[in-house]
Every structure is written in C-alpha cells, then in structure tokens.
Amino acid sequence: MKNVLVIGGSYFVGKVFVEELSGKPDYSIYVVNRGNRPLNMTGVKEIVSNRNDVEQLRRNLPQLKWDVVVDFCAYAPKDISDVMAALPEGSFQQYIFISTTSIYQDTLALPVREDSPKLTGPQPELGPQAAFYGFNKWRTEEELVKHCQKLQARYTCLRPAIIYGKYNYAPRERYFFDLINQGKIVILPDIDLALFQFVSVWDVAHIIMVCMGNEKAYNMAFNLAADELISYRRFVGVIKEVSGKRVAIRTASIEVIDQQRIPLPFPLDKHLIYSGRLIHDMLGIQYTPFEGGMKRTYDYYALHELASSN
C-alpha cells in the first residue's frame, strides 16, 4: 500500500484527483485541508489543519513514510517551507507541485516551452488580485527545488495551461454555459485573433497519477497543454455543439468590452500558447480532444448545476 499525502484536495483539480485516485486499491490517501469543505469520501482520511500552522500540521500528520506528497495549494515560498518544516526529514520520496504556465515572461517565441524565461517580478498590469500570482508560483517552484535538493528527495512540477472541467469555481466555461442557458447574448471580440490552449481537469488528475513514483518524472517540470489552439469563437462554437443550444453572438471592439466591463475570462489580444509536448514525448501522455472534454464538462453542468438552479 502506497501512502499519498494530498494538500488542498477539496477544490476543483484536487477534488477530481482524490476522486480518481480513491478508486484505485493500492493507495492510502490522506488529505490536508482546513475542514471548510469536507470530502466525506470512502477510504479517504481527512486531516483538518492549516498548512501554514507548522506546529498544528506536525501534530496532526500521522507518522508515516509518504510515497508521494501532492500539493495543490502552494502559492508562495512560505507555503512550501512550512510543509517541509512539519514533515520529518526523510519522510517523503516525491513531492508533486501543481504550478502554472503563468510563471513565464511574455514572449513572441511561441509556443512557450519549459525552458522559456520566467518572471522576475510581479505584474501590476494584471491588477492587484493577480499581480503576484505567476511570480510567486515561480518562486514557490524554486523553493521546492531547493528543499528537495537539500533532502535528496524527488520533485515534479506540473504547469497546466487553462484548466476546465467539473468543479471549476473560476468563471470560465461556466460563464458561457450560464449565458447560453439563460438565452442571453454572448459578446465576443470582433477581432478573433487571440488563441489559447486548454487542459481538462481529468487529464491533469491522470497526469499526476502517471507521474507518481515514475522515475522519468523525477526532478522535472512539465507544461500541461493540449495541442489544439482555441479562439473565442471556437470556444463558443464547441459549447454550441456539445450543448445543442442556440447561441446568439454579438461582437464588439476590445475598447467597448473593456469600457462595459464585460467579464470575458481569457485575454482579448494576447496569445496563451504553450508546448505540452515534453510530457507527451517522455511519459506518453495523450490529451483529451477539446470537444470531448467540453462535452463531459457540459454534461456535468447540466446534470448537477443547471438542474439544481431550476
């Protein structure tokens, strides 16, 4: 039996990962969270702790050897150093950190690869809520590498592009699902040039499991991004196909969209294009086609979220 310590497995990707892993008989799963959203899953042991309260975490963690630690909610270097302080030295073999493609500098050299330049400071142009996000995630990766090298432990950093799927609390696909099901007009930029890449939440969960105990994933960082390039029109077109709904679209200039504060979830005039080929070539990862993943996402929305609102 392999012991897996999950930090922050109550939301979105973490919850899907715990659900998927709990169906496998060879793992003993422990989830650290604050207890605000209990999972109540059969066979999953929940540890109510604040990850930044070192003494509480040290006291509440069972004295086990962890085959893998999977961290979904480290956003600053201190988040890593606090967990390392709570874990006895030599108590884990591999630490998998869910990072982000937001760590990269803006560049015209597309697609962005794992060795592309990283942020060297915050991004105030993104606003106060997001200014430090990418920069701190990169600093957190560096903190993890430093600790693992000191402890002679293995690490794996996974950098997803835009994630979609069930339990998504970010107003991405849900924003369009709601508009379409309410019969409202979808406003899109009149110049449909910005292109994005996505990865389904189920793919991210599967990739984590492939990386667990996999020597090819040790001390590596991987982008997670399907090859398909998706524009706003393509995004909404796929939703139209998978939902079977009529979609009323009106276009507007970027200036009008900004002035009216229309909350479109992706950049209006900037590509987000990353290479997800390294993990494909090294670990054989195959990404879910966008239409198939979005069909699964919409089916979940229609069954659980749309139905409950009617």
Question: Which descriptors apply to this entry?
Answer:
Rossmann fold; 18% strand; seven-stranded parallel beta sheet; two-stranded parallel sheet; 10 helices; 11 strands; alpha/beta; 310 residues
Could you explain the architecture of this structure?
The protein has 310 residues and is an alpha/beta fold. The protein has one domain (2-309): Rossmann fold (3-Layer(aba) Sandwich). It is built from 10 helices and 11 strands. The protein has helices spanning 12-22, 54-60, 77-86, 133-151, 173-181, 201-211, 232-243, 254-259, 277-283, 290-309, and strands at 2-7, 27-33, 44-48, 66-71, 92-98, 154-160, 162-164, 186-189, 198-200, 220-224, 249-252. Strand 4 (66-71), helix 3 and strand 5 form a beta-alpha-beta unit. The longest helix has 20 residues, at 290-309. It is globular and about 60 Å long. The model has no long low-confidence stretch (mean pLDDT 94).
What's a concise summary of this model?
With 310 residues, the chain is of the alpha/beta class. It is 36% helix and 18% strand.
- The total strand number stands at 11
Order of strands across the main sheet: 3-2-1-4-5-6-10
Taken as a percent bin, the fraction of beta residues is: 15-25%
Order of helices and strands: EHEEHEHEHEEHEEHEHEHHH
Structure classification: alpha/beta
Sequence-ordered SSE layout with sheet pairings:
Blueprint: E1 2-7, H1 12-22, E2 27-33, E3 44-48, H2 54-60, E4 66-71, H3 77-86, E5 92-98, H4 133-151, E6 154-160, E7 162-164, H5 173-181, E8 186-189, E9 198-200, H6 201-211, E10 220-224, H7 232-243, E11 249-252, H8 254-259, H9 277-283, H10 290-309
Parallel strand pairs: 1-2, 1-4, 2-3, 4-5, 5-6, 6-10, 7-9, 8-11
Helix pairs in contact: 1-6, 2-3, 3-4, 7-10
